[in-house]
User: What shape does this take?
Amino acid sequence: MSFTALFTPAAVADPAPAPVSSTDGTDIIFTGGGGLTLHGTVIASAAPHSTAPGIVLVGGSGRGPRTEYLAEARAFAAAGITTLIYDKRTTDYSRTHRDLSLLADDAFAALETLRHTPGVRADRVGLWGFSEGAWVTPLVAARSSDVAFLVTLGAPGFTPLRTQTWSLAETLRRHGDTGPLADIVEGPAARLIGETGAFPAAGFDPLPALRGVHVPVLALWGDHDVQAPPAESAAVLRNTLTGSASVTIRFITGAAHNGRSTTDGFDRLGAAAGPGAPKGAFAPGYLDDMTAWVNQVANDAPPVSSEQPPPAQTLSSIDPGHGWWTSARVQSILLATVLVVFLGYLLVSSTNRRPRPARRSARLLALCGLLSLVATVVYVESILADDARTVGPVVAGRSLVWLMLQGLAILTAVLLALTATTAVRGRTGVATARHAGLGVLLAAGCAWLTWAITWGLFSIQ
Assistant: This one.
């Protein structure tokens, strides 16, 4: 990540969104990473003294207009902490492209802007990072001595891919799916989509930046967080933030990933804090505890490191794995080979309008195998791509679609055994070339079988 040339004339600019009400603060523009013009608002401290601590709020994933964090900014300002909120870039940031270093450039530029704002004490300006922002802000804190403190909310302790697939497993469980589908989503399917570049910033490792943080840290999670594993992430931060003399780990009672009140992490209780704000009211104590901690640190009295007992975490996150067999390269080669053989066999055998019984079973094998492979990959990857919205109805603890895919896989396996048995008995009665074609089909069928086992299509758990 480079913090150089951040204040050069802007080369490009995102469209200016609707500004925050003038009664809330002063709208500003500043130059972010790559010379991009960004829009923000500084909400001045309500404290009577002339120099106040400051904090820059760095939002989570998505478009992230500053209005999403206006309520937190007002709370900080009311507690005597001047706050800067800004609209997240849309240039070089999309659903398929993420550059966390570039987002860190933006956050650093916002930090420097606030440090040079009249009425703000330049050596008491810190960062607040929510979710994705909790990956971004440690990058800034580790590489700039200008960061005075760090507050995170819902900080993931793992890579974006592992974090997202854990969240999807939680979503599947909420839908009632307790079968093997979650393991497939977190395992081979995750590697396939991650290593092929279809999942942005899939392998970003937060640990190097966390090791480089040397300022006081307040790390918060909702005890019902279902988007970043709270207990596991807290353990990662506790064990990694060894460079900081003051690390405070807290869990907000009755709070979701974003600090809003919830009963299970999925619903939201109470009215939103205002127009443009996320659904739900803030969980009791969240804002007060956070602002009190910042003021304590700003007064040169950081608390002694402490950690609350973590909440029970129903599901553990799963590392997608590093073995060669489930690598995207091997999976892609296997899938492409099986697809080509099955499809090719169907096309070639279609010229024989009166096939013998063995040939009919071979055709069905190619057809069912082709459908099984394509439908399974599309279905599972759609769960990853669309936040489990495609899971469909659940029957007896399993997705109905998954049960159908398992049924199709069993039928394909039966056809594979039948075709192989007939071929071995020498009852094909076909020419050598066609016999060789049948051998290629059976080899592809065995490759398909290995893939189907890896993807849990025969799992009965």
Q: What stands out?
A: The longest strand covers residues 120-130.
